[in-house]
Structures are given as structure tokens and as C-alpha cells.
Design a protein that fits this description.
- By secondary structure, this protein is α/β, with parallel strands linked by helices.
- It has a domain at about 15-255: P-loop containing nucleotide triphosphate hydrolases (Rossmann fold, 3-Layer(aba) Sandwich), CATH 3.40.50.
- It is about 60% helix and about 5% strand.
- The protein contains 13 helices and 4 strands.
- Helix 4 (about 95-105) crosses helix 5 (about 125-135).
- The longest helix has about 70 residues, at about 305-370.
- The protein is elongated and about 120 Å long.
């Protein structure tokens, strides 16, 4: 498959896949791997939520998981300020050195490297710096799937894990997380090579989408696919992969949150159809981002009492846990002391008998010698 007019470049590329989880990031990564991009092994194996595989470098997943933990940020964080926390950790010299070394190592094997991990969106500046340090260019590929479908997919495969105590809390948190990641991913990638791919479009016409990605990101591998590569991708891409078709009517969340998410979705579709950039769409996304940040600050203020109670409850639970551990240690120490006393008590009669026998033996020997 040759793309007319596709630019050829000898510059090394680090393609970073961004976007919310359950947006088709694994599908595009699998397609681009078959198209010639290198996903550094070993890869994270598939499971029931993604049986065809995740196409994620295990090193990147483990490394970024540690960085999130150090930042006190979770994968589905809806706090706008969470991006500042991840940026601080990612900017540390040892982090920059380690990521740069990993990128350089694998660029020596392939001039087009693919990094896909749901955590990528939290560390986009880090990957840009690593690519630059390695003498390569970074390119961002953001997968798009309607937020209602993303939430529906997470509800199906992840239930209410880390999302909330009720379905409304879980779905509100997940829509807000989608909003947060979508808004800040778009803003962070404006001054770089980027492209947007709609999941539904990829499943319907992967050839057209791959040709567009190759042209917009100036990739050489996907620009000219052999028949064998095309057959491999044909077998891999299955329209039935879109197993969840949730609509807004299925999602229970505040109207304002839903309206903002729909507006962001509409503008991202404009970017997907205009080569990744559109002044008007970007301006409207700026307005929504400011509105979201303002709404979140207000929500934090309203929920301050709940946050304080959660903090106190956490402190109480920590004290209870410590007291329980102390009591358990005291019981174990008491049991050890009791066992030692039992052993000494059991050994005492044995010693007395031995001494009595020794005395009796001496007496007998004296009597015999007379």
C-alpha cells in the first residue's frame, strides 16, 4: 500500500500513543506494529479485557506506573492539577536520563519506535524530551472514542474499581477523567507533530486511516505495506472489536459534565478531520478547559467537608490498623514467652531426676567398694 505524496524521512521517530484507556489504543498499536514500527519487547501479555494483546512495552508500563505512584496520581485522575504533579516527577534528572537511555537503546534497532501505554498521556513532555535527547523527533497519535462508549467499556470490564461507591459516582468520575485527559493531551501536543484517529473509523477502514497517519506523522514504514503485512492487519482488525455502543442516555452524570464532554468530542473530531490542527476548534477547546478547571475548583470547595471527613476517616483507620498490629504483636510475644516457660517447666523435672540418679549411682558405687 503506497500513499501518494507521503513524505519520506530519514529522521528517527518516537510515536507516542495517547488517549483514554478503552479508546482503541491497543488496536492502533497492533496495526502499526504490523506496519513496521518497533514495540520494544517484552510486551505486556493480553488478558480477558484485551485477549488480542495490549501491544505495550513492559518496561514503559512498569516505569510510568512507578512515576504515577510517586506523583500520587491515579490513571483515571480527573484533577487538572494532577498534570503538574506528574510533570514535577518526570522532570527529575534521573528520570530524564533513564527514559532517554531506553529510547536510544531501541532506536538503535529501528528508526521508528512505538510507545503505547494508557499512562502516556500523563507524561507526554517526558517522551518529547527523551526523543529529543536521543536525536529523534516525537510524534503524538491520539485515539478518539466517544466518551459514553469509553465509560461503558470501563463499566463492563473494570466494574466500579477505583471509581466510586455508586454507579453515578463511578460514571461521573470516568467522564470527568476522559475530559481531563482529552483536554490536557490536546493542549500539550499543539506544538508537535500529531494526528487523531477515531476508533470507529479505524475499524471501518484501517487502510485509509493508516495512510493518513503515515502522511501526517511522516512515517516511512506504514507508507508502503507489503501484501503480507496487509493480510496480517486484515486478520487483526475486526469491526466486532467495538463491543460496547453506549450512548449518553446510558450514562448517569451531571448535565454540565456531559455537555462539556460532548463539546470536547465534537472539537476533537474537527481536529481529526483537519490534519490535527484547527484554530477555531483549539480556541473552543481552550474555553472548555478553562470552564472545566473552574468547575473542578468549585467542586473541591463544595466537597471540602467530605474531603476533611475522608482524611479523618483515613487517620482513624490508620490508628486502628496500628493498634491491631500492636495487639497482634503483643499476643505473639505473650505466646512465645508462654512457650519458653513451658519448655523450662518441662525441662526442670528432667534435670532433677538426672541429678538424683547421679547421686544414687555414686552411693551404689561406694557401697560396692566397701
Amino acid at each position: 500500500m503506497t500513499t501518494p505524496g507521503s513524505p519520506a524521512t530519514s529522521t528517527a521517530k518516537v510515536v507516542v500513543v495517547a488517549g483514554s484507556g478503552r479508546s482503541g489504543t491497543s488496536t492502533i498499536a497492533g496495526v502499526l506494529k504490523s506496519a513496521g514500527l518497533l514495540i520494544p519487547p517484552p510486551e505486556v501479555p493480553g488478558n480477558r479485557t484485551n485477549p488480542r494483546g495490549f501491544f505495550e512495552p513492559k518496561w514503559a508500563v512498569e516505569f510510568q506506573t512507578k512515576l504515577l505512584r510517586r506523583s500520587s496520581v491515579v490513571l483515571t485522575d480527573s484533577r487538572p492539577a494532577a498534570f503538574d504533579e506528574t510533570a514535577k516527577v518526570a522532570a527529575e534528572p534521573e528520570v530524564r536520563e533513564e527514559v532517554g537511555a531506553w529510547v536510544r537503546q531501541h532506536l538503535a534497532q529501528s528508526r521508528e519506535l512505538l510507545v503505547k501505554d494508557p499512562r502516556d498521556s500523563w507524561f507526554l513532555p517526558m517522551w518529547r524530551t527523551a526523543a529529543t535527547d536521543a536525536g529523534a523527533e516525537v510524534a503524538f497519535l491520539t485515539m478518539l472514542r466517544h466518551p459514553a462508549e469509553v465509560v461503558g467499556s470501563k463499566d463492563k470490564y473494570y466494574k466500579n474499581t477505583n471509581a466510586g461507591e455508586s454507579p453515578r459516582q463511578a460514571q461521573t468520575t470516568r467522564v470527568a477523567s476522559w475530559l481531563n485527559v482529552a483536554l490536557f493531551t490536546e493542549a500539550t501536543t499543539r506544538d508537535a507533530s500529531r494526528t487523531f484517529v477515531v476508533y470507529e473509523d479505524l475499524l471501518a477502514d484501517w487502510r485509509g486511516q493508516v495512510a493518513r497517519v503515515a502522511a501526517e506523522l511522516e512515517l516511512t514504514g506504514p507508507a508502503d505495506l507489503s501484501e503480507a503485512q496487509q493480510a496480517e492487519i486484515d486478520e487483526f482488525v475486526d469491526p466486532d472489536l467495538r463491543r460496547v455502543r453506549t450512548e449518553w442516555s446510558d450514562i448517569d452524570c451531571p448535565d454540565e459534565v456531559r455537555e462539556m464532554a460532548q463539546e470536547v468530542w465534537d472539537q476533537l473530531l474537527v481536529l481529526a478531520g483537519s490534519g490535527g490542527f484547527d484554530d477555531e476548534a483549539q480556541a473552543r477547546l481552550d474555553v472548555v478547559r478553562e470552564r472545566y478547571v473552574s468547575m473542578y475548583v468549585d467542586a473541591e470547595a463544595l466537597a471540602q467537608s467530605s474531603a476533611e471527613e475522608a482524611r479523618r476517616a483515613g487517620a482513624r483507620n490508620a490508628r486502628r490498623k496500628l493498634l491491631k498490629e500492636q495487639r497482634q504483636q503483643a499476643r505473639q510475644e505473650a505466646q512465645r514467652t508462654a512457650r519458653q516457660q513451658d519448655r523450662r517447666a518441662a525441662a526442670a523435672p528432667t534435670g532433677a531426676v538426672a541429678r538424683a540418679r547421679s547421686v544414687a549411682g555414686r552411693v551404689k558405687r561406694r557401697l560396692r567398694s566397701r
